[in-house]
Amino acid sequence: MKKIVVLSILAVFSLFVVSAAYAGGACPQPRKTKAAPGGTAKMDKTAGANADNGKKIYDKTAKPMACKMCHGDKGDGAGKLGAALKPKPRDFTCAATMKKISAGQMFWIIKNGSAGTGMVAHGKTLKDNEIWDVVKFIRDEYVK
Ligand code: HEC
Q1: Exposed, middle or buried by CB within 10 Å (0-12, 13-18, 19+), for 82?
Q2: I need a labelling partner for 86 at 20 to 30 A (CA). Which of 27, 69, 70, 103 fits?
Q3: How many CB atoms within 10 Å of residue 92?
């Protein structure tokens, strides 16, 4: 009898884990992020940006914490801190969602944050050219 109880608890628990993992990996990703104002959405300064510097910012130096803590080592939104967030961090590897997100839109959200989500504003800790560096890195490395 005890064994059955333990087994059914395990079964319910594993269902929960599977569904949580599935929700994390949904692609296209549900997205209600505010749109950047027209001019900014169309802006793109990645041509002159430095992707190597962008990688440093993404992996290490961004404040209050590295982008990868939420967006993941592989840009798939599966970072350790991101797991608990609702909405989930953007999965940059999800083409169905990312094809609608311009470089200027990314720049604007990184600078201003996405109100009411875990995505904080970086406009006080990163200069505009550093934001373009990280946009270039993400688009070159993860967005396919
Ligand atoms: C504390 C976790 C966290 C950190 C750290 C973080 N993000 Fe985010 N990010 C999020 C979440 C959550 C969203 C989803 C926001 C939404 O749904 O509107 C997001 C969304 C985004 C988007 C998508 C914007 C859009 O229009 O869909 C970009 C680009 C982005 N983050 C870049 C970055 C960069 C670059 C850094 C580092 C400088 C960073 N993020 C750091 C949690 C984080």
Answers
A1: buried
A2: 103
A3: 23
Mean pLDDT by 10 residues, the chain (144 residues): 57 49 75 97 98 98 98 97 95 97 98 98 98 98 95
Q: What CA–CA distance (Å, rounded) separates 129 from 54?
A: 10
| Cβ-contact 38, 108 below 8 angstroms | no
Q: What is the pLDDT of residue 7?
A: 53
Q: Evaluate: CB of 131 within 6 angstroms of ligand 1.
A: no
Query: Atom 28 (ligand 1): residue with closest C-alpha?
Result: 106
Q: What is the C-alpha separation between 63 and 65, in angstroms, rounded? A: 4
The pLDDT value recorded for residue 11 is: 57
As given in the structure block, the two tokens for residue 27 are: 């692609």
43: left (phi over 0), alpha (psi -120 to 50) or beta: beta
Question: Token pair for residue 107?
Answer: 């720049």
Amino acid at 125: T
